[in-house]
Design brief:
This is Triacylglycerol lipase. InterPro entries: AB_hydrolase_fold, Lipase_secreted. One of its GO terms (molecular function) is triacylglycerol lipase activity. This protein has 422 residues and is an alpha/beta fold. It is built from twelve helices and nine strands. It has one domain: Rossmann fold. It has a nine-stranded mixed sheet with strand order 1-2-3-5-4-6-7-8-9, sandwiched between helices. Helix 4 packs across helix 5.
Length: 422
């Protein structure tokens, strides 16, 4: 295999392989699965739970539409539940990037052991990284199958005694196309996921102190949650946000990805923006190759067989290989991308921003620009670069720092950030 192809495959699968290798070691903490909480036999696209009522019932963002017990497992064979954790799947109200009400699915996880720290049990709204575009990629499904590549990071938080809420984001699991990397939609989904967890009666999380954590696509979601929290969700007791590998400026990210090994991620974002903003009319820019790729990728999951193959088959391609004209050159596309560019509003809570300095997917320069923009507006930001990390290893290297940052915020410790060094 060509060295560049090996590098592509390594980065796409690094976290997935790590999770699979450690799952067996963690099965010792699992218990026999009760019959009444067996994981769904059908993926979301075939499961009526994920289909919201039409019209949506009256309510507010974060209201729970329906819920049911579920299994959180790291056992991909027997689906034995991870011990000491209660789990629910929820369908809750959120909003689209244009402000329309929508239903989003997710998972709420609460340790069985009573919280022994000060105050109420903390809640982390965990924003996942890139999954793909298909409903079967939804974390609320993969977490019941022992096939979620971030399950060990979720466990890391649960082991602190924290509750964890994981949104599927708009269009993963629920009907409609996933609005991949549309920051406003993702940020609201993360905040409303926290609200839904607090409003789930059996979870016992009302009034919990909240933290937000996410990397890569999750970094976008976490960054937008940080910017939106004060105006959009002032009812949440948000203590801090940890965001890593943040795609803050998708125009800059697209310019970097065009012709790179990871150009498939840019095509996924184009599909996401077309779903969020139908007036963009992506299909009108595509040639036959582009339409074939769109048909192939709209249900793709990165951890399935077709995901890595699609990444490899599109590696080093350019926008011009799939279009008759470049949509990113048009005022309409530029305007919508700029609406979802981070940095225009200072987060109202302390933020830890992590960035792998050798990141081959998310350019460090645009991440540094975000840090400078936030700092210039008076935000409390702690920025840390990881000199020898690329995108996948950056997720691993930043985990300890992110967790420590949130633990300190939940403990009420002050933080000054390092904006003066920016």
């Amino acid at each position: 295999m060509h060295s560049s192809a090996r590098r592509v495959l390594r980065t796409v699968l690094a976290s997935c392989v790590g999770a699979a290798m450690t799952a067996a070691a963690l099965q010792g903490t699992a218990a026999a699965a009760p019959q009444d909480t067996a994981p769904p036999a059908q993926p979301p696209g075939q499961d009526p739970f994920y289909r919201p009522p039409s019209p949506l019932p009256a309510g507010q963002p974060g209201d729970v539409i329906r819920s049911r017990p579920s299994v959180f497992t790291v056992d991909p064979i027997g689906h034995s539940p991870y011990g000491g954790v209660k789990s629910w799947q929820v369908l809750y109200r959120s909003q689209t990037a244009t402000g329309a009400p929508t239903a989003v699915s997710g998972t709420v996880l609460v340790p069985d052991k009573p919280w022994t720290g000060t105050g109420k049990r903390p809640l982390v709204s965990y924003a996942v990284g890139t999954r793909g575009l298909g409903d079967s990629c939804a974390p609320s499904y993969t977490l019941t199958q022992g096939l979620d590549y971030e399950e060990l990071f979720v466990i890391d938080a649960l082991n602190q005694g924290w509750a964890v809420a994981v949104t599927d984001m708009e269009g993963l699991g629920t009907p409609g196309q996933h609005t991949y990397e549309v920051g406003r939609s993702q940020g609201m989904a993360v905040l409303n996921m926290a609200r839904a967890a607090e409003r789930l009666p059996d979870a016992g999380l009302a009034g919990a102190p909240v933290g937000v954590k996410g990397y890569s696509q999750g970094g976008t979601s976490a960054g937008w949650a940080a910017e939106l929290a004060k105006s959009y969700a002032p009812d949440l007791d948000l203590k801090g946000v940890a965001a890593g590998g943040v795609p803050a400026d998708l125009r800059a990210v697209a310019a970097s990805l065009d012709g790179s090994p990871f150009v498939a991620l840019m095509f996924m974002a184009a599909v996401g923006y077309d779903a969020a903003y139908p007036e963009l009319k992506l299909d009108g820019y595509l040639n036959d190759n582009g339409r074939a790729l769109l048909a192939k990728a709209k249900d793709m999951c990165l951890v399935s067989v077709d995901g890595p193959l699609t990444v490899l088959q599109t590696a080093f391609k350019k926008i011009s290989d799939y279009t008759t004209s470049n949509p990113l050159d048009t005022p309409q596309w530029k305007a919508r991308l700029d609406e979802n560019k981070l940095g225009s509003t200072a987060p109202s809570v302390p933020v830890f921003q992590a960035q792998a300095l050798l990141d081959e997917i998310i350019p460090a320069k645009q991440a540094e620009t975000l840090d400078h923009d936030w700092c210039a507006k008076g935000a409390n930001v702690t920025y840390k670069g990881y000199p020898i990390a690329e995108h996948a290893t950056g997720l691993l290297e930043s985990e300890g720092d992110m967790m420590s940052f949130l633990a300190d915020r939940f403990a009420g410790k002050p933080v000054q950030g390092n904006c003066s060094a920016a």
